[in-house]
Design a protein that fits this description.
Pathway: Amino-acid biosynthesis; L-histidine biosynthesis; L-histidine from 5-phospho-alpha-D-ribose 1-diphosphate: step 1/9. The protein is an alpha/beta fold. 28% of the residues lie in helices and 29% in strands. Bound molecules: 1-O-pyrophosphono-5-O-phosphono-alpha-D-ribofuranose and magnesium ion.
Length: 212
């Protein structure tokens, strides 16, 4: 009998809530954190612990069947990938921010300027739609430091509590999108796996209703 392979974030903000929702829907996993793969004891499911940014490609290739992932990552790297359920946790925004004493106060002020980001595709698409011509500088983390070290005029990154912006003396000037954790699916699912997914989705819906 086939098992549904579900990817979750290995470590980071989504990990704990992802494992909790699996637990809440009755999927118990013996969690050796160093193990990158674990089978559920009581359900035809295998959990893969992966890096966030790698998950969309695994879904596209059908290496995993489903994933609990931030919508923002799916938008950045997932192009045609679909999600079937919003999960209500890990809510955040993807926003553009500039130094708080900057004269740049709106998006159009960033014309001809430099923006540091880990979300190049999202930013590119947005700037194009808004007819803004800015240069992107791609970095993988600690993006908020970029303006302070003269690397860029502004940044585009995730804002959750807003604490990182605040601590780095930045002000938000534009929200590109709002995001939360979602249940995403691979386009390559056989009937047997689809049936397991349907059961999981149904259980998730019940759990989420109960949380309201
Ligand atoms: C993430 C994100 C923001 C910050 C937002 O960074 O890139 O910098 O969290 O959260 P906040 O609004 O609650 O401060 P993370 O700490 O994961 O580190 P990284 O950017 O170096 O990956
Ligand atoms: Mg960061």
């Amino acid at each position: 009998m086939s098992k549904l392979r579900i990817a979750v974030q290995k470590s980071g903000r989504l990990n704990e809530d992802s494992m909790q929702i699996l637990k809440d829907i009755g999927i118990s996993i013996d969690n050796g954190k160093d193990q990158l793969k674990a089978s559920a004891r009581n359900f035809p499911v295998e959990v893969f612990y992966l890096r966030n940014g790698d998950i969309p490609q695994y879904l596209k290739d059908g290496v995993v069947d489903a994933a609990i992932i931030g919508e923002n990552v799916l938008i950045e790297k997932g192009n045609d990938l679909k999600f079937v359920e919003r999960l209500g946790f890990s809510k955040c925004k993807v926003s553009i921010a500039v130094p708080k004493d900057s004269k740049d106060n709106s998006l159009k002020d960033l014309n001809g300027k430099k923006i540091a980001t880990s979300y190049p595709e999202t930013v590119k698409k947005f700037l194009k739609e808004q007819n803004i011509d800015a240069q992107l500088h791609i970095i993988n983390g600690s993006v908020e430091i970029a303006p302070n070290i003269g690397l860029a005029d502004g940044i585009c990154d995730i804002v959750s509590s807003g604490s990182t912006l605040f601590k780095n003396g930045l002000k938000e000037i534009e929200v590109l999108l709002k995001s939360e954790a979602v249940l995403a699916v691979s386009p390559i699912l056989n009937d047997e796996k689809q049936a397991i997914l349907d059961t999981i989705q149904f259980r998730i819906q019940s759990v989420l209703k109960g949380r309201d």
